[in-house]
Write a structure and sequence with these properties.
The complex is a heterodimer.
Chain A lengths: L1 E10 L2 E11 L4 E5 L6 H8 L7 E6 L2 E2 L5 H6 L2 E3 L12 H6 L10 H6 L2 H21 L14 H14 L4 E5 L7 H16 L3 E5 L3 H7 L2 E6 L2 E6 L1 H6 L1 H8 L5 H13 L4
Parallel strand pairs in A: 3-8, 3-9, 6-7, 7-8
Antiparallel strand pairs in A: 1-2, 1-4, 4-5, 9-10
Chain B lengths: L23 H6 L4 H15 L3 H26 L8 H18 L7 H19 L4 H21 L23 H23 L2 H11 L1 H6 L4 H27 L9 H14 L4 H17 L7 H15 L13
Helix pairs in contact in B: 2-7, 3-7, 3-10, 3-11, 3-12, 4-5, 4-6, 4-10, 5-10, 7-10, 8-10, 11-12
Classes of the chains: A alpha/beta, B mainly alpha.
């Protein structure tokens, strides 16, 4: 599905991503974790075309898309959400989700000018699709009104619905749980699983360890732009390099044990 | 409305609006028949007043509506600040003027050529500039607007500073009555307004608004923002160019003095004053901008002073425009 090979990205002299390789298989949930500034979002931005990588290869279904523009990568079946919520604030909730239908909605300019049957059919189809995904993410609130009038948590749902209306094969979620309360996080967990059940592969950046350990098939850990671990959650959780990255080199045994407890405790959630 | 696992397509439930329902006035203002009401006003106006002066002013106002609606595609829908819109107006007017006088054909017969030339102009001006963002784009379009005007001023085929005379009327004879010409212009512009509004409510129209709201998010949804912006620019160019044909037909003479920066600024003002992205707003804005100086004629020398003061007052009182884009779907 997605293969990232030896990805490097430097801003001036700073290496934001330094030789990262990972893959996401069809129907898999892969989490990318790491301390702040580890290069997670930079890596996502390279994958989705917003940054041009300095070196390395990005393949989607075997086709090389390294350095192509974001819209082309989206047309290959990749959809994403943003870390700091990028909804179209001055547009209606429905219109926001309709953005996802842009790539597959069959409607030409002539149809729009003459209001042909094809125009009516495609508009109806787009609206039904928007409602379908808003139902799917469980949006509460007014769909005809402006998206900026919704509470933050609901705006997050709109953003995910918009990404799903793209009908992607791979969905990249950048910190979807940030700013959500406990109940909303539980709903998000359920939502991510339901998305996977649709056959959509998911790459997830997340700081909430409970969520990551609960939902992921595989976890990739980054630190200073380098990959320090890649494996199933139980294995990564026990990895000394990971614990060191989160606590620092000088952590003594007791602290490591405490951290292990904290990370491990997430299992029960 | 549960987050059902099956995600079945349900009939969209119509959510009740909280608080007061829409008043009669709001319902009328958002009604689909509003366009017909506007057209009816235009059709009936000559029955109220039909002096040659009034017909001239009204025809100019209707042509100005077409310009404003065209610029609204670029600025209102797509959010691209274009300070040189008169360039397309000039390209359209000169193309039809030169062709009709050189080849002795009616102005309407020049329309296909005008469309081709304005699309080319849109691609040539938009191609390199639309990679720029906001302020830079504004400056470059300002430059292109001046380049077109100065070119027309210096070429011999465009008649230099004195321009082109003796442009035939729309149907080939310049003597047809003012009222007939007014109605012809009114119907053409009504169609242009309708088509622009339809563009705004389509896949491409939404794409323009997505680009205006957030280019990166639009790209992430698979919208090639460069192509979409160029499409907006070309659509604006066609509307502006066709308005130029009507302008040439009305005056039967054109010169570079008609296509100055002031003209671009006035059209932009109509769009902003009326309400960016709102078709009824922009039509209203264009009518206000073109009729107000005539209404204020009694003030003689103070006319443009009063005009400016009134515009400032409107923008302070209604910064979103006289008739802003409706914010919720019906």
């Amino acid at each position: 599905m997605l293969e990232v090979e030896d990805l490097r990205l430097s801003f001036g002299g700073v290496l934001a991503v330094d030789g990262l390789s990972f893959g996401v298989g069809a129907g898999e949930i892969v989490s990318v974790i790491g301390p702040n500034g580890a290069g997670k979002t930079s890596a996502f931005n390279c994958v989705t075309g917003f940054y041009k990588p300095t070196a390395g290869r990005i393949r989607i279904d075997g086709a090389d898309v390294t350095g192509r523009r974001p819209s082309l990568i989206a047309s290959r079946g990749v959809s994403r959400t943003f870390q700091n919520l990028r909804v179209f604030g001055e547009m209606s909730v429905l219109d926001n989700v309709r953005a996802g239908t842009h790539l597959w909605l069959r409607q030409r300019v002539v149809d729009a000018l003459l209001h042909t049957p094809r125009y009516r059919r495609s508009e109806r189809e787009g609206t039904e699709e928007a409602h379908k995904w808003l139902d799917f993410v469980g949006l509460r609130g007014d769909r005809a009104g402006l998206v900026r009038n919704l509470p933050y948590g609901e705006q997050r749902r709109v953003e995910i619905a918009r990404a799903l209306a793209r009908r992607p094969k791979l969905l990249l979620l950048d910190e979807p749980a940030a700013g959500l309360n406990h109940g909303e996080k539980a709903e998000l967990l359920d939502l991510i699983r339901r998305i996977r059940d649709l056959g959509i592969a998911i790459a997830l950046i997340e700081h909430d360890m409970g969520l990551v350990m609960e939902v992921s098939d595989r976890v990739v850990v980054l630190n200073f732009g380098r990959e320090i671990a890649d494996g199933p959650p139980e294995q990564v959780r026990a990895d000394p390099a990971v614990i060191e990255a989160y606590l620092g080199r000088d952590a003594d045994e007791a602290e490591i044990e405490a951290a292990r407890e904290e990370v491990g405790g997430a299992r029960g959630e | 409305m549960s987050a059902g696992k099956g995600a079945t397509v349900q009939d969209p439930p119509v959510k009740p609006v909280k608080g007061r329902g829409p008043t009669f006035v709001t319902r009328f203002l958002e009604s689909r028949h509003l366009g017909w009401a506007g057209l009816a006003i235009g059709l009936l106006a000559p029955f109220v007043i039909a002096t040659p002066y009034a017909m001239d002013v009204m025809t100019s106002a209707v042509v100005f509506v077409m310009l404003a609606v065209g610029l609204n595609i670029v600025v209102g829908y797509c959010g691209l600040l274009d300070l040189g819109y008169a360039a397309f107006f000039a390209v359209g007017a000169y193309t039809s003027g030169v062709l009709s006088t050189e080849l002795k054909i009616p102005l309407l017969a020049t329309v296909p050529a005008v469309i081709v030339v304005t699309v080319l102009a849109g691609v040539i001006i938009g191609g390199p500039t639309l990679r720029l963002r906001s302020d830079y784009l504004a400056i470059v379009t300002l430059g292109f607007g001046e380049i077109i005007r100065i070119t027309a001023n210096n070429l011999s085929i465009t008649g230099g500073p004195s321009g082109i005379y003796g442009i035939p009327g729309l149907f080939g004879d310049a003597t047809s009555s003012q009222v007939v010409f007014y109605y012809a212009v009114l119907l053409i512009v009504a169609a242009a307004v309708l088509l622009a509004a339809r563009l705004g409510r389509s896949r491409i129209g939404r794409a323009w608004r997505f680009v205006r709201e957030d280019e990166d998010a639009a790209e992430a949804m698979g919208i090639n923002t460069y192509k979409v912006k160029l499409a907006a620019y070309i659509a604006g160019a066609i509307w502006g160019g066709l308005a130029g044909v009507l302008f040439a037909a009305q005056l039967s003479a054109i010169s570079p003095a008609s296509f100055t920066f002031l003209q671009s600024a006035l059209v932009l003002m109509a769009v902003v004053l009326g309400g960016m992205g709102s078709t009824p707003g922009v039509v209203l804005g264009a009518i206000v901008i073109s009729l107000l100086p005539e209404v204020l004629r009694g003030l003689a020398d103070y006319r443009f002073f009063a005009f400016g003061v009134l515009l400032i007052i409107v923008m302070i009182a209604r910064p979103q425009g006289l008739w802003p884009h409706r914010s919720r779907e019906r």
